[in-house]
Amino acid sequence: MSTNYDAIAREYQASKLLPWRKHFEAYTYFKLIGSLNEKSVLDLACGDGFYTRQFKLRGAAEVTGVDLSAGMIALAEEAERNNPISLNYICCNVTELKLDRKFDMICASYLLNYAHDIKSLNAMCEAIFQHLKPGGRFITINSNPDYKATINSLLPYGFTRENAGYNEGDEVTYRFYQPDNSFVEVTNYHLKKTTYERALIEAGFSEIQWNTMDVSPLGLGELGTGYWERILEDQPVVGLSCKKLL
Ligand SMILES: C[S@@+](CC[C@H](N)C(=O)[O-])C[C@H]1O[C@@H](n2cnc3c(N)ncnc32)[C@H](O)[C@@H]1O
Questions:
Q1: How would residue 8 be classed by pLDDT, with cut points 50, 70 and 90?
Q2: Pair type for strands 159-163 and 132-143
Q3: What are phi and psi of 174, to 5 degrees?
Q4: In this structure, what DSSP letter does residue 96 have?
Q5: Ligand 1 in contact with 47 (CB < 6 A)?
Q6: For residues 226 and 128, is the Cβ–Cβ distance under 8 A?
Q7: Please, what is the average pLDDT of the chain?
Q8: Whose CA is closest to 162, among 173, 153, 171?
């Protein structure tokens, strides 16, 4: 059963403070994204706007965030009210998105892994293609289909990951631990890398590239190389990018 983020919006937000988010997830994501300068950006599955805000602060001309969860969008709008930087948010399923415009770049952290079969993945990829300008790139980070390590392998980083199996549509469950040792659980779905590639190609995308994750020099310096060995060896997250040709 896919996660209803309304019920865990604040707890999920807290999980973004763990060191691996900054030094592994965000570091690699921004490296893949490259220059945001003066670009119009669509941030799909934007959640509480964690990356939406950073896209604008890192130079994007304008950023629109889209998320299915009213609770997550409420947090994003709260941050925008407290500290306005002209962001737009829309509460909508990506598969039903029909904006009357296109963007220079589309980004998404943890969207495609909510597709439980090729049909729902096709619908997401088609919506992304429709909202991207020719020449634009789609950049995403996603649950890594190739992750095979044991459930508790990632516990040193504050979370666990369990694959119910490796068949199409099998559940992948993450538990993010809070400082008091309670946890929030989110569930997404396993699809093969070839299934992702097929859906992107069928939507019209080219130049599909998978990217392994890295740790920032700051993260290596602050926590030491030993700390990062396990997550670098068995990577729970993977980068993916592709292009809509002119
Ligand atoms: C793991 S959270 C990531 C949030 C944010 N991108 C981040 O990195 O902090 C996944 C988000 O995807 C949203 N989501 C899942 N399926 C979606 C869909 N079909 N359309 C729009 N949002 C979706 C959820 O509501 C949730 O906020």
A1: confident
A2: unpaired
A3: -110, 140
A4: G
A5: yes
A6: no
A7: 96
A8: 173
Confidence band of 179 (pLDDT split at 50, 70, 90): confident
Count of beta carbons in the 10 Å neighbourhood of residue 181: 6
Residues 199, 125 contacting (CB under 8 angstroms): yes
Superfamily of domain 5-146+192-226+234-243: Vaccinia Virus protein VP39 (3.40.50.150)
Q: What is the 66 CA–ligand 1 centroid distance (Å)?
A: 8
Kindly give the pairing relationship between strand 171-177 and strand 183-189. antiparallel
Cα(1) to centroid(ligand 1), Å: 14
Tokens matching residue 225: 């190389």
183: tokens are 């946890």
Q: What is the pTM of this model?
A: 0.96
Distance of CA 158 to the CA centre of its chain: 18
